[in-house]
Specification:
heterodimer; A: alpha+beta; PTS-regulatory domain, PRD; four-stranded antiparallel sheet; 16 helices; flat; B: about 600 residues; alpha+beta; OB fold (Dihydrolipoamide Acetyltransferase, E2P); five-stranded mixed sheet; extended
Chain lengths: ~375, ~600
């Protein structure tokens, strides 16, 4: 390492690097550079949060107050080229509660360089992403009572629009248990392995209709869009794992708004980024202004344990160290009883317990304590 | 085939629904059917519903045929000369009454000029789109609708002569405005309602300007001179009542001044207003918690009246006293009997309320505000002709709310005051603004209502011309005297030892969860502790078992109920609520153990 880190050990490397490159660009003299460093160090120091600052409460208030002004509309349509997306307070709650099944999961599929400016190629990929069910590619279903089987007549025109080649064997794709599937050029025949009644066959037919044949599961809609100078595909429904395996998809840029899928596929750091971006999006949409650092704090807290945890009694709030703090949040009886069964000890280190007991809270003016170093020898006398 | 229902009962079917309806309506207009018969064709259900029942709201409309109103100029002149009545128009088939259902198949024009051949009816006047109370807002067509709705709502809260026999009534929580005036700017509805006979406000001179910042955020400035001359003065009435209840065993409450032996006897001072019958005399000036009606009740439990008990004759005091924080003069007393035959005493207490800072006022345009400052008349701004405003209204209340009607009322009121003639401000049908301006101009005033004014404190001329004129202002029923509340110490709850709730009981104002969060966010740790120490207690903790021990200060002994005498007992200061939590946990079978640690 060069002199830069030793001069200002408190500055993070990234800032130092940036300043170095800037000073080279602007051709600063050594004196000017020194001044710039001093200014940077001072600004950086000012931006730091003092010890004992109640950042958690301030973050909560910073979200809570604008939250009261948010419109409660769940969906937002702006023209045909938009998809319905949960917006406003409901979406914010979804993000911060880390809901397992968000109402409108969505993926922005970016494409590799060779496809991204070719509208025809995009359309092809888009079609191949959409989940196609058997009923969408056949002319109709019928029950052949004499052979005790279900027959589906293929619609070749539809197959073509979905990008399924005629010779592709759909039979192998129909994954329904306990049936034999045979395919001729125009017909798919489904016969149960065991003898069944006609009634059961009818139920089977209803099930077969929804059999997945093509595309990516859970992707209910696809929408090619122009973003900047390239085309992207917006999907309703999220299945990040499978979408990334499709040819032509840019695995580096494609993103989902589903926190759990992002965490699973891209890792926890990506999930943190998604939390921040999604929360920011809601706040921007509502025309509100919440400092990013509050969002960052929340995202950090939610992902710090290596898995996405919502701010609920099942997530991080339920993992608070203090029994009293947990009990004061939700389901007090449950926490008190389990604490008594396991013999928990509450060190009373946090805010709410001390408010309950009318003790000074360990924050702000209540944080510093007088430390007396007793002379051990004298004390013994 | 269309089903026909008469008053919700099926009576038959008709072949041609339209023809049927047409013939019914024609006969009604000819007077062969009652004018209150209404019908409606429900196309979805293919059914005709006819109604003659009572309780439907119906309204009159002028009949239109082929795009022409049936009401001619001849009718109008006859009406004006009292040659025909409105009811004759109905029998003549010029006007008919429609109910909500029949309106569904009508096309009603608002104005005669809008008529097309498709129209079936014409409104008698465009202002029938307004209701009784919203018609009381003058020049409402110049304001935004939401403000006009608010304006009509505020009029309901305005003080006035709420009932002309108010002196004989025992209403709860009512006020009567002194010196109420007829509005200078009125509407047709004021005439219909006889508003002149029981008005609900006063005409004041309003200047639209700021004054020392005391009229920020909708506050208003009042002239002390106006208040001294009676502006906004009102009398507040509140009845108190006592009933001689009967109890089992032939026991009965007794309305009289309680004996000194009575359980719960107050001080003699508090009974000083009572006369022989135990009721405060009319005209008695009562202070807070003074007794109005003296009453005693028999002992609560019959067991208390044992054979040898000397307490047998001791009765409980249960007098009715003035509420905490209230005062007044005994106005009227009624002694009567209620439905159960018990003796009932009702005493009405009156209190004259002179305007004070915090009382609520409003114009008729949804512009409400609280008195922010009362200024001596000599300090009020003054016009060239020597007029000082009674009230100063903030200009910032206007742009975002767009109540232009408020401004037009100022001009109209000014014209009315100067000419000595009332101005008609009926919505859609008012005296036009330009006429008012011309009249103002003719009398030597600026036509836009502004005047040169001088600062009352310094005598300097204001650079801006001030918009000043007369308006009708309402004193609203919300008065600070009934609302203000503060306490330093007082009653506490038995269970939690925290202050009790409610103004009437002299309770505390809760510093809630979110307010607490603000203290935390500021890091004001010790201030927070101090704010919450209303229930602090000292508990003595046994260092051995962690439960609460006992300190006997008389014998100077410390011991723990479980561990005995030979243990360390340490005093700790905690909130009583926390001690209660520990007790409740123990009652659940949970052993909450306190581990103590030296603070230093």
């Amino acid at each position: 390492m060069s002199t830069k880190t030793t001069d200002y050990p408190a500055l993070p490397e990234q800032l130092v690097d940036e300043l170095e490159s800037l000073s080279k660009e602007r051709k600063l003299t050594a004196d000017e550079k020194k001044k710039a460093y001093a200014l940077l160090a001072e600004t950086y120091d000012k931006a730091k949060i003092s010890p004992g600052e109640a950042i958690g409460i301030i973050t909560a208030e910073s979200f809570g107050e604008p939250g009261t002004q948010m419109t409660l509309n769940v969906f937002h349509f702006a023209g045909v080229s938009e998809m319905s997306v949960t917006a406003g307070l409901p979406r914010l709650i979804e993000i911060f509660d880390a809901t397992k099944a968000p109402k409108t999961p969505q993926i922005e599929v970016y494409l590799e360089a060779k496809y991204k400016k070719n509208p025809n190629a995009i359309k092809k990929i888009a079609v191949s992403l959409k989940e196609t069910k058997l009923e969408e590619v056949v002319k109709g279903f019928s029950i052949n009572a004499s052979k005790m089987r279900i027959e589906a007549r293929l619609d070749h025109a539809k197959l073509k629009t979905f990008g399924i080649k005629g010779n592709m064997i759909l039979a192998n794709r129909i994954k329904v248990r306990g049936v034999f599937v045979n395919q001729t050029k125009t017909l798919i025949a489904i016969k149960p392995k065991v003898k069944t009644t006609l009634g059961e066959l009818y139920h089977l037919k209803e099930k077969i209709k929804l059999a997945f044949v093509h595309g990516v599961k859970n992707i209910t809609h696809v929408l090619p869009l122009k973003k900047g100078d390239e085309y992207i595909i917006l999907t309703a429904g999220s299945n990040l794992k499978d979408i990334l395996q499709v040819d032509g998809v840019d695995t580096m840029r494609t993103r989902s708004n589903d926190l759990y899928q992002t965490a699973k596929v891209y890792g926890i750091e990506a999930a943190r980024q998604v939390i921040m971006e999604e929360a920011e999006k809601v706040i921007q949409n509502q025309g509100l202004d919440v400092d990013v650092r509050h969002i960052m704090l929340l995202a950090d807290v939610m992902t710090a344990k290596g898995a996405v945890k919502g701010i609920t009694r099942f997530g991080i709030t339920g993992e608070k160290a203090s029994v009293l703090a947990r009990a004061s949040f939700e389901t007090p009886l449950k926490h008190l009883v389990t604490a008594s069964l396991t013999g928990e000890i509450d060190p009373l280190n946090s805010v709410i317990e001390n408010v309950m007991m009318n003790q000074p809270i360990p924050l702000g003016t209540g944080l510093p304590d007088l430390v007396v170093r007793m002379d051990k020898k004298k004390a013994k006398k | 085939m269309t089903d026909v229902f008469m008053n919700e009962k099926f009576i038959g079917t008709v072949e041609n629904a339209d023809q049927f309806i047409q013939s019914i309506i024609e006969k009604r207009r000819e007077g062969k059917f009652p004018s209150t018969l209404n019908l409606n064709l429900d196309q979805k259900q293919d059914a005709i519903f006819m109604q003659t029942t009572k309780g439907r709201a119906v309204r009159p409309l002028i009949i239109v045929e082929n795009g022409k109103s049936k009401l001619t100029d001849a009718h109008i002149t006859k009406l004006k000369n009292d040659e025909i009545t409105f009811d004759e128009l109905v029998t003549e088939g010029v006007v008919e009454y429609l109910d909500a259902l029949e309106e569904e198949m009508s096309l009603i024009a608002l104005d005669e000029n809008d008529l097309t051949p498709e129209h079936t009816h014409l409104e008698i006047s465009p202002l029938t789109i307004l209701g009784v109370i919203s018609s009381l807002v003058p020049y409402a067509n110049y304001g935004s609708s939401s403000r006009m709705i608010r304006g009509s709502k505020l009029q309901k809260q305005g003080l006035g002569l709420y009932r002309s026999n108010f002196l004989l009534r025992m209403d709860t929580d009512v006020s009567v405005l002194h010196y109420s005036q007829k509005p200078l700017v009125n509407t047709f509805m004021h005439k219909i309602l006889d508003f002149d006979k029981n008005p609900g406000g006063q005409n004041v001179v309003v200047a639209i300007m700021s004054y020392e910042g005391y009229n920020m955020q909708d506050a208003i400035i009042l002239n002390r001179g106006s208040i001294d001359r009676g502006f906004g003065r009102s009398t507040y009435f509140r009845p108190y009542e006592a009933e001689e209840l009967r109890y089992s065993g032939g026991l009965i409450d007794n309305i009289k001044t309680p004996d000194k032996e009575s359980k719960g006897y107050r001080t003699e001072q508090e009974y000083r207003h009572l006369e022989k019958d135990g009721i405060a005399y009319t005209g008695a000036k009562l202070g807070e918690e003074d007794v109005i009606i003296g009453k005693t009740s028999p002992p609560r439990f019959l067991g208390e009246m044992g054979d040898f008990s000397i307490t047998a004759s001791i009765r409980r005091e249960s007098s009715v006293a003035l509420k905490h924080g209230e005062l007044g003069i005994v106005d009227m007393t009624i002694i009567t009997e209620n439905e159960e035959g018990n003796r009932l005493v009702q005493v009405r207490v009156r209190d004259t309320r002179i305007v004070e800072v915090g009382d609520k006022f409003a114009s008729r345009h949804g512009q409400k505000g609280v008195a922010g400052l009362i200024v001596p008349p000599e300090d009020m701004p003054i016009t060239v002709s020597g007029v000082t405003p009674d009230l100063i209204f903030s200009p910032h209340s206007l742009p975002s709310r767009m109540t232009m009607s408020h401004l037009i009322e100022v001009i109209a009121g000014k014209t009315a005051a100067l000419t000595g003639e009332y101005v008609d401000g009926t919505t859609f049908d008012a005296q036009p603004e330009h006429e008012l301006r011309e009249m103002l101009h003719g009398m030597g005033f600026r036509d836009n209502g502004t005047e040169t004014m001088y600062n009352g404190q310094t005598g300097e001329r204001y650079q801006a011309k001030i918009f000043i004129g007369n308006m009708y202002y309402l004193k609203l029923k919300h008065m600070v005297a009934n609302k203000m509340h503060a306490r330093a110490s007082g009653r506490i709850q038995l269970l939690t030892r925290q202050p009790i709730e409610g103004r009437g009981k002299g309770g505390g104002l809760r510093l809630g969860e979110m307010e607490k969060d603000c203290f935390v966010a500021h890091g004001a740790s010790l201030l927070l502790k101090e704010r919450f120490d209303s229930d602090k207690t000292t508990v003595h903790v046994c260092e051995k078992c962690g439960m609460l021990g006992v300190v006997d200060t008389f014998r100077n002994k410390k011991f723990c109920p479980t561990c005995g005498n030979n243990v360390d007992i340490t005093a700790v200061e905690v909130s009583y609520a926390f001690k209660l939590l520990l007790d409740e946990l123990k009652s659940l079978g949970v052993y909450p153990r306190l581990g103590l640690e030296s603070k230093y």
